[in-house]
Amino acid sequence: MGAAFLASWPWDNLGFYKYVLYGPLVGKAAASRAWEAASPDRWILLLLVLFGLRALTYQLWSSFSNMLFATRRRRIVRDGVDFEQIDKEWDWDNFLMLQVLMAATAFYAFPSLRHLPLWDARGLAVALLAHAAATEPLFYAAHRAFHASGRLYARYHSLHHSSRVPQPFTAGLATPLEGIVLGALMALPLAAACAAGCGSVALAFGYVLAFDFLRAMGHCNVEVFPSSLFQAIPVLRYLIYTPTYHTIHHAKREANFCLFMPLFDLLGGTLDDQSWEMQKQTSAGVDEVPDFVFLAHVVDVMQSLHVPFVLRTFASTPFSVQPFLLPMWPFAFLAMLAIWACSKTFVISCYNLRGRLHQMWAVPRYGFQYFLPFAKDGINKQIELAILRADKMGVKVLSLAALNKNEALNGGGTLFVTKHPDLRVRVVHGNTLTAAVILNEIPKGTAEVFMTGATSKLGRAVALYLCRRRVRVMMMTLSAERFQRIRKEAPPEFQEYLVQVTKYRSAQHCRTWIVGKWLSPREQRWAPPGTHFHQFVVPPIIGFRRDCTYGKLAAMRLPKDVKGLGACEYSLERGVVHACHAGGVVHFLEGYTHHEVGAIDVDRIDVVWEAALKHGLRPA
Asked: Where is the Very-long-chain aldehyde decarbonylase CER1-like C-terminal domain (predicted)?
């Protein structure tokens, strides 16, 4: 049996190319120079601008909704928005495309609409009256009909209710039939004003944008009204709905059907009795305490746009520089300066694992700042304050990401646990699991490896582990003192497997390279054909050799029962996190009571690896 009539979008299979449907209007506007005041097709330009502003309205509400650092205490549904919901709402703007075509049709059918004055104050009164007398009751009746009929609900309205967490983009998750009904009802007040001879361009812009503003607000999953407002002016409870009010409708589906005015639910006997009590509780604000925190930092200006509160759909895909980001770069750069000057650690995203809340926090510093000598103390202060805040909140484990655990910065976290010996929160660098991931990527039976960055924290652990397995490790280092220090850590019977080399040509016969330091194209050319580059260098080296293969940074896939995960961690695939992140998760799941800071305990590499696999984490 095929899909019901008007139950699916005709451009579903076009993907991004669906925007070609705007082509005729854009072409007509350009050909007639619609930006000129005397152009007869100026209405086309105004129409396109209006629908651009409509899309921006939903985007801004989406950004607000996902600003967990500002909204988490007043979130109504506390679950995160997962990848499944994001994909489902990917084409949320379908209804806007439909309605711009409906509006263009109206302009062609009624040419007088092309010559509306800029403003007529009388039109506002007519539109408000028509909205209250026609749009509100008709929407209420249509909405109840969609729910009352199992057939209508299943074919046309169940899609809208399939999202677990209401979001501004959920407002656009609808079928063509719903888009037509909503567009017609929205047009009624404007049509009434025009019929009365008092329509205007300003009224069209104002009413439509206010309509979208209220719809996006109702789906934002953040309570924005203080309960004191309704206590001071009780009649407002029936004149304007709240996000809590509409979220109850999404949860119960048998109450709170109104468009914007709960008065019609009161008259129809469908007003949920708990609406205002729940609104009062939500607006009071209650913070959730995470059990695990991954303390990250911003990589660079472009990557700062890869967060849910900027572009949710973009953040749900692995990061890569895209052309549409370029116009946003100046704003992101100014944001960087503001954050550098006056920000503190803030919440980026969250997910749930086995009933426990995990959050990602970000230190307000960018990658390059970690290499500025004068910035070191300030960065450590930010990290220290985040640890103390987590300790005060009752967080169980805090894992340091990337440069936040740099040896030169704070000794891999040692600075903080030494300074605060009574910390209840466990501070973890997660590099034990990082080492395990790197080691388990090396094929069994490998007899010899070449390693750069061998004297680093990770390099040392990997080298010592391999030599114990009787794998010959050629350690590229110019410092004989550092090499000897590491060599002496190995049991005497395995020390012969650690060999110092000072030139890349020494490794031209070895096909297993473990890279912990940046390699230039010139240095990479010493590797023989067929070499595989295992990496733990940040940023990863660029693959110049077509006759070689390049591994990605150590990472693991979170367990399948993770819930509410909707953001990719930098350039990693969905559901995959850096190994140090995974190491912190394992530390929490296992209930380890020690801090994991400073040098990596080589004896624990296999222990942590087995624990990770036991809890359902898998190599990426």
From this structure: 449-619
